[in-house]
Amino acid sequence: MRRLLKNGSALFGLAILGAIVMLALLAPWIARFDPIRQNPRESSRPPSANHFFGTDRFGRDVWARTVTGGRLSLRTGIAAVAVSMAIGFVPGLVAGYRGGWIDALIGRGVDIMLAFPGILLSLAIVAALGPGLYNVQLAIAISLSPTFVRLVRGCVMAAKENTYVEAARALGCSDAVVLGRHILANILGPVTVMTTVALGWAMLIATSLNFLGMGVQPPTPEWGADLALGRDHMRTAWWISAFPGFFIMLTILAINPVGDGLRDAIDPGLEIR
Q1: Burial 198-233 (b: 16+ CB within 10 A, else e)
Q2: Three-class SS state of 258
Q3: Closest alpha carbon to 230 in 14, 13, 46, 25
Q4: In what helix (H) or strand (E) does residue 66 lie, and over which residues does it extend?
Q5: How far apart are the C-alpha atoms of 229 and 66, rounded to whole Å?
Q6: How far apart are CA 222 and CA 217, in angstroms?
Q7: What is the CATH number of the domain that holds 157?
């Protein structure tokens, strides 16, 4: 924690990410307008003191939709990463510890999934399951799970060769004790870093799928869906797409230095000087 707090870029990313999360959590109190209610008389109004981010073509307040949509965008990314880690953790653990034909079988399956770009695989899964928020989360989780399998497998293979693991085996400890007490404790650091980085990927894929209309359906506010809403009005009402797009960019840019800071704090030897 001390090393992390000394990392300026990580603290900057944490501050921005914390501010975005607070805006999303406080959305019901700071939105000022109903993000769904239409008001044709206020259609496509530019940013002003009354409407901070302007209004869309239906007269809905863009500020209200942006801060409210952040709740859904952040929740989608967090849920997808949590499920992908749950899917990939056990296969990676078994493959790295057991090796042999089990490792080869799991490895070939992971290689097949990694042959497809994450967003393309997610799009194919959503197309098969049908549009919907939960299907988007599941698709992202499946597309990210091979990364966790690879990471956990590599960490376990490195950890099981350490002397303390061999000593535990020599003392007669069972595989469950060796894994739970001696190996898991030493792979949680890299997994934590990977989880942080994967959150940025998940949010980017989620907003992309929502942009294409594969996720949430109108009039639900969400950054990717709102970005698509204003794509035909960029010349006349740029603010409809600009502010949701800015929040997407800002969130992902804030997550990246946090992941780098966690990596350097957990293993200072990896820091590029």
Answers
A1: bbbbbbbbbbbbbbeebbbeeebbbbbbbbbbbeee
A2: helix
A3: 46
A4: helix 62-98
A5: 12
A6: 9
A7: 1.10.3720.10
Whether residue 185 lies inside any domain: the answer is: yes
Structural domains in the chain (count):
1
Task: Look up tokens 């190996």; give the residue.
Answer: 183
Q: What is the DSSP letter of 181?
A: I
The amino acid that residue 86 corresponds to is: A
Residues 221 and 7: their CA atoms lie apart, in Å, by 35
Q: Which two tokens stand for residue 76?
A: 């989608």
- The answer to whether 24 and 71 are in contact (CB under 8 A) is yes
pLDDT in tens, the chain (273 residues): 788 788 888 899 999 999 999 999 999 999 889 999 998 888 889 999 989 999 998 999 999 999 999 999 999 999 999 999 999 888 998 888 888 888 899 989 998 888 888 888 898 999 888 888 899 999 999 999 999 999 999 888 888 888 888 888 888 877 788 887 778 877 877 888 888 889 989 999 999 999 988 888 888 899 999 999 888 888 888 999 999 999 999 999 999 888 888 877 776 554 444
Pinpoint the alpha helices (H) of 160-269.
163-170, 175-177, 184-211, 223-229, 239-266
Angle between helices 8-25 and 239-266 (to 10 degrees): 130
Smallest CA-to-CA distance from 206 within 231, 224, 233, 229 is with: 224
Does 218 reside within a domain? yes
The residue range of the domain holding 210 is: 67-267
Look at residue 189 in the predicted model and tell me its pLDDT: 79
